[in-house]
Design goal:
The complex is a heterodimer of chains A (about 200) and B (about 100). With about 200 residues, chain A is an all-alpha fold. Helices cover about 75% and strands about 0% of the residues of chain A. The two termini of chain A are about 35 Å apart. Chain B has about 100 residues and is an alpha+beta fold. In chain B, about 55% of the residues lie in helices and about 20% in strands. Chain B is built from four helices and three strands. A three-stranded antiparallel sheet of chain B has the order 1-3-2. Chain B is elongated and about 55 Å long. The relative contact order of chain B is 0.23. Classes of the chains: A mainly alpha (about 200), B alpha+beta (about 100). The interface between A and B is medium-sized, with 17 and 21 residues.
Chain lengths: ~200, ~100
């Protein structure tokens, strides 16, 4: 018979590996944050340039052309981020000699994307009804909920990223005119910090 | 001593299979194979063994045209695993004192 400690460790490891998706790449978080910051920079020049550095310029966003451009930019950032995370996590799985497509990773993706998909549709409704000031907070809040939901199926640390997004989203909802700033903090800065932490903790 | 050392879990493959089924409602053959890194024959014989003891139940179905075999732990299997865990925990406690 093996050592009982060893046997319990074996059981725990199997339980974790069969339910959690553990090869989500930290570097892809850093890249996703970078895309978001670049996109926010572009959006900033469309909305605010060449006027005052910041403030409630929300009237200008109601201009149809800008809304469309912002939506397309956001969509590109979303697709690029998902694509990067996908490819880099796949490589990560190969490096750690584990499978990428497992029941655990499927559950992780489902848990993350159901709130995000609903949030996306909800944001389109907000835009179509002209509530532009609460779109950025809504994206942060739904993303935060998705992360919280998905935290059961990956490293638990992602929970804290979720809480931060939620707090930021709620604050942002009460600060009209600072949507772009809070959005960049949430999707840009927080992703870079989280990605770097995950990279140092698990991927090296 | 409380708990019971269950011979069924003496083998590491069976122990792993049961650990996985304790936290997953169901798990399919191919996913077991990938996660445990064992051969088809080896895995099948251990699954058969657990099935014979009525610790796990089998559900065969099709995913498109591919056969899909899902396994889940029975109430009896879960109770036996809990007993086995209890035994291990008590053993550790006793070794410490």
């Amino acid at each position: 018979m093996r050592q009982p400690e060893q046997e319990l460790a074996e059981i725990k490891s199997m339980m974790e590996r069969s339910t959690r998706f553990l090869t989500l790449s930290g570097l892809s978080g850093i890249l996703a944050g970078t895309y978001a910051l670049i996109a926010a920079g572009i959006a900033y020049t469309w909305i605010y340039y060449p006027e005052v550095p910041y403030g409630s310029n929300i009237d200008k966003i109601s201009d149809e052309g800008i809304v469309g451009k912002l939506l397309i930019t956001a969509l590109i950032v979303l697709l690029l981020s998902i694509g990067t995370a996908w490819v880099m996590s796949q490589n990560n799985s190969k490096k750690k000699a584990t499978k990428f497509w497992t029941p655990a990773s499927k559950r992780f993706i489902q848990a993350l994307f159901i709130p995000i998909a609903i949030g996306g549709v909800f944001c389109l409704a907000l835009i179509s009804r002209g509530h532009l000031a609460v779109v950025a907070p809504a994206t942060l809040i739904f993303y935060g909920l998705g992360l919280l939901n998905a935290s059961h199926f990956t490293h638990n640390d992602i929970k804290y990223l979720g809480y931060c997004q939620l707090v930021l989203g709620v604050i942002s909802a009460f600060l009209p005119g600072f949507g772009l700033l809070t959005w960049s903090l949430g999707f840009g800065v927080l992703h870079i910090i989280y990605g770097a932490m995950m990279y140092y903790k698990y991927d090296r | 001593m409380k708990g019971n050392y269950d011979k069924a879990f003496e083998n590491v493959v069976r122990l792993r299979v049961m650990s996985i089924l304790m936290v997953n409602d169901e798990f399919d053959f191919n996913s077991f194979k990938e996660l445990l890194d064992v051969t088809d024959g080896n895995l099948a014989s251990h699954l058969k063994n657990l099935e014979k003891q009525e610790y796990i139940s089998v559900a065969k179905s099709f995913l498109g045209r591919k056969p899909l075999t899902n396994y889940s732990a029975t109430a009896q299997g879960k109770a036996a695993f809990q007993d086995h865990l209890e035994f291990l925990e008590n053993l550790i406690k006793e070794n410490k004192t």
